[in-house]
Amino acid sequence: MSGITRRMLMTGVAGLGAAAVMPRWLHASVQLGDWQIDTLSDGNLVLPADFILGPMPAEEVAPILARHGLAAGEPLTPPCNVTLLRGQGRTVLFDAGSGLAFQPSVGELPDALDALGVDPGDVTDVVFTHAHPDHLWGALDDFDEAMFYNARHYMGAGELDYWRDPETVNTIGTARQAFVIGAARRLEILGDMVERFEHGDEVLPGVTAVLTPGHTPGHMAFAVGNMMILGDAIGNHHVGFEAPGLPSGSDQDQALAAETRLALLDRIVADDMTLIGFHLPGGGIGRAERMDGAYRFVPEI
Ligand SMILES: [Zn+2]
User: Fold this and answer.
1) Which structural domains are found in the chain, ordered by start?
2) 16 C-alpha to center of ligand 1: Å?
3) What is the mean pLDDT of residues 46-59?
């Protein structure tokens, strides 16, 4: 079955329809040195509000949510933006999306790539920020084979070790056990296709890994020139920027994640960096500005 996926067959049948709705997937596009950078939509998650906001003081969060038109207690529907870098003879994805096994409202990355004329076999590198379902599970196709079958895959060494450790399922807590089983199975199937890297490594020419732990134990962001690909180190555009020191329920180590968020925001503003967030709106590309002792997200597009 090398190279043929059920998804590709379906895409072929649905080709005309896909062209008609192409803008839905291609969110944002910028040029950075040699790289053409596009963010592609994998769809959006649907999360109970408490999944993120649960540990936060309600009175502190309410005005922030109101400012962003979000009603307290309503489910959150964060977008999922996969970053595509093209240049230097490479086609690079940052994270692989959810695939079809996680939630019904995600798994659209293959359609987004198809709309851009990128075949899964064209992808040369898949660089993971972390091993959560919405970032890793799309690395396999519907036949449980590598979706990006010609690509080298890269994951931070600490992250890879954590999710491959047979003890993790016993220590992570019941709420996240399915994440462990899902990640371990996919990493096992990908096997030798996955290479490890450390903080500070140049994973690809001009792409430097930045250890940003807390959301997961070995989460990595990536500095590309003056741009920071954040993954989930800053996981939303509201409380993540406007109350970055508050504990978030979506982070595995809430205190460490808050520390990471504050340090990242400080660096991004000090160095006047552009950022791309996996779960930020408008394609996820923007900037951070200081506001009232915290920050705010300013979309670029
Ligand atoms: Zn995520």
Assistant:
1) 6-299 (3.60.15.10)
2) 30
3) 94
How far is ligand 1, taken at its centre, from the CA of residue 135, in Å? 6
Q: Is the pLDDT of residue 5 over 60?
A: no
**pLDDT given at position 34:** 85
When comparing pLDDT for 297 and 6, which is higher? 297
Which residues, in sequence order, are CB contacts of 175 under 8 Å at separation 6+? none
Question: Euclidean distance between the first and final Cα of the chain, in Å?
Answer: 41
Q: Is the pLDDT of residue 266 over 70?
A: yes
Q: Is the pLDDT of residue 90 over 50?
A: yes
134 CA from centroid of ligand 1 (Å): 5
- d(C-alpha 44, C-alpha 145), whole Å: 24
Question: Whose CA is closest to 7, among 135, 101, 78?
Answer: 101
| Summary mean pLDDT of the chain | 91
Distance (angstroms) between ligand 1 centre and the Cα of 229 equals 13
Distance from Cα 278 to the centre of ligand 1, integer Å: 7
Distance 27 CA to ligand 1 centre (A): 17
Note the pTM of the prediction, 2 decimals.
Answer: 0.91
